């Protein structure tokens, strides 16, 4: 494959050698407030495995993958085990042929056995790759969405590993799609800078919240201009009906309601349960069953289509091969990419191309730690350069953990505002990283002292 | 769910408290001989994450999950992180309602995010669960196949978590299947003890072997009574043709040839390449493409059916939900369960039930470290209690690493002989475990000293 320089700022192979990569276990004690609680994840401590890439120059890359607390130490171990594939490499060379590097990372001949391209090793890949994109943005002095928007189509396509997806999209097709969508780019970028990208809120409907809190939050977000609201369901049908009715009462019937079961049901149960909730006119049912069950989702989609309910999934879809099948099979009417689950920006780009090809709108999953910060860049790229439309598209927004980031997401009038600081918006405030590093950070030590959480056993058998 | 005692040897809750669980990183330097080399895994060091469960009585459980070397430390970390869900539990209670315990292990509300039920955490689950079955066998003084054969159907079905698979098989159906197949059990068990279960060999066709070695090994295994031979393909078409022709020349056309691509191709490429190899009349093409691509395998199966070539896959199929879809879709004509990839005996049993229901023969994957030792138990259970037939069924056999086990697999006249020692045949010889523990075992220290392998960096960034 031909190599070419990406920018004029430096010649290939000069001056951006990666000298170190550090992985840290950062956990926020969100379980104390039932924030993020759903049918399957009853007590999450929103956390991340946080990567900093140091170069020989005065520029760093920051990246992360989101986790729910326990197990973050396993992802950190995986990042450490993979670090030797990154340290010593020239980042400028990586960026020129990023897809080839991505394949090296994900296809290491011994390590791939314990994936491949799924679970812990793929989350570790995401954290590393996200840090590399942050670094690239900083080197180019652009936020990642703008880096992507300005990138030569050939360079962008070369960032993608098309292995296993050429039956849906080839590099040549991807290139043609970008070139075809080039018309109108400037107008869309200008409009995006003016208005932003529409968001919906999940803040109103965590399972652990009381009725009063739900109503209060609905009113608050409605007043802020939100028009789409998501509610967690699946633990108790009568309770779900009560909550959906309550939300509809506050938001009215002209607004959009989505419901989210977080994988609690089997296939037939999904269909039966959603028939009971159809009266509340949800736009979609999210994650009705196993995130691996393509054929199950296709069956559910078929059954719910006459009721006007679509199926949304993707936040736990483990790689592009699963996404490919969800898109091929009609098992997904809304494609919910996540910025940390699959192997970083490169693999997510491949999903955008497949979704465009097969005509499925992408509505990213966000929330957690840093997901909003990252995913806004991707969706803005898609709008300007690929899909060219916001129709049927909206990005999840959860107003949590943003205070720990140096350049947090800005949502105004229910729209994500374009990030302007160079990079991928992934840098944690040093004070937050220090305080919440598990288990030695000052906040954790304080909570252990007070008996709010037990001190963990050695590395970390503690539960 | 009703609880009942499994055996008469003890009352529930008495006397089998698990007091500790230890995980070790054991690696054998097989890359030195190109043993196990294939199109995707060019230099494997066959390894395992090895678990020992200690109880308050004088009985231990030994279990493992197979790995290829690098990354084993990540699986060991995952086992350590999960150990608190096991330590302190009463094993006798676990066994009485094993499916419920299995769900606890795989659905831990924070940890499941980094799976769920796939990759590193699921390999760790397999190692732990396999050790529990070994313990159960020892407590009952039976090899695991016989433990399963003699088990009350209700207890066996209660060991399975049916979440996400009830659209194919329910607990009630599974129970009925066992009861229906009960007739003839004694005769089949007696026959199995006399003759054993048929094996095929993969020993003849690793990609790293020379032509002379391949021919010599074909002749050797032919003389031992083997009638089915598997060859690795996929790196170079002309080389594949030469190797297949060579093997056919030695084994003749009345014997069975299988070919294995280890995921090297895309969907269309799989079809094109196999059309070129059809002249050698392979029974199956194994792992033509991504192990996650159900629809891709279905397409390949359709295209190759007229050529008389089936598709086999499963060794990297990450859980029962993927198996369900492969079986539902016609993407798998031979179901290759693996004893360590999905979550241990419990989940594999669910695959046997689905395969039986949907009429697909199970031909287990084996080789590696301990896979032959474990999988023989499962296939023998299936023959005696469920499928009741050996038709179209055969178990892989690779004659490597058996010398490290206290009770290695015995294959005579190309048939696995029934294991007679209580447990799951999973105990490593203490001397082997000591010598090959990575990186501090005596053999590894010796190889580092001689410069045969580099000393690893701290935990283990070394590559």
Report the end-to-end length of chain A measured between terminal Cα atoms: 49 Å
Most extensive interface, residues per chain? A-B, 75 and 74 residues
Low-confidence stretches of chain A: 1-13
Count of DSSP helices of chain A?
17
Largest sheet of chain A: 9 strands, mixed
Number of strands of chain A: 12
Oligomer: homodimer
Radius of gyration of chain A: 21 Å
Catalytic activity (chains A, B): L-fuconate = 2-dehydro-3-deoxy-L-fuconate + H2O
Cofactor (chains A, B): Mg(2+)
Keywords (chains A, B): Lyase, Magnesium, Metal-binding
GO molecular function, one term (chains A, B): magnesium ion binding
Fold and architecture overview:
The structure is a homodimer of 463-residue chains. The radius of gyration of chain A is 21 Å and the shape is globular. In chain A, a hairpin with a 4-residue loop joins strand 2 (47-55) and strand 3 (60-67). The longest helix of chain A has 22 residues, at 119-140. With 463 residues, chain A is of the alpha/beta class. The first copy, chain A, has helices at 72-82, 91-96, 98-106, 119-140, 144-150, 153-158, 171-180, 185-195, 211-223, 237-251, 267-277, 294-304, 320-329, 344-358, 371-386, 430-436, 442-450, and strands at residues 18-27, 47-55, 60-67, 197-205, 228-232, 256-260, 282-286, 310-313, 334-335, 395-397, 411-412, 415-416. The model of chain A is unreliable at 1-13 (pLDDT under 50). Helix content of chain A is 41%, strand content 14%. In chain A, the strands form two sheets. In chain A, strands 4, 5, 6, 7, 8, 9, 10, 11 and 12 form a nine-stranded mixed sheet that branches. Chain A starts with 17 loop residues before the first strand and ends in a 13-residue tail after the last helix. In chain A, helix 1 packs across helix 4, helix 5 (144-150) runs parallel beside helix 15 (371-386) and helix 11 (267-277) runs parallel beside helix 12. Chains A, B: This is Mitochondrial enolase superfamily member 1. Chains A, B: Its cofactor is Mg(2+). Chains A, B: Its EC number is 4.2.1.68. Chains A, B: Belongs to the mandelate racemase/muconate lactonizing enzyme family. ENOSF1 subfamily. Chains A, B: Keywords: Lyase, Magnesium, Metal-binding.
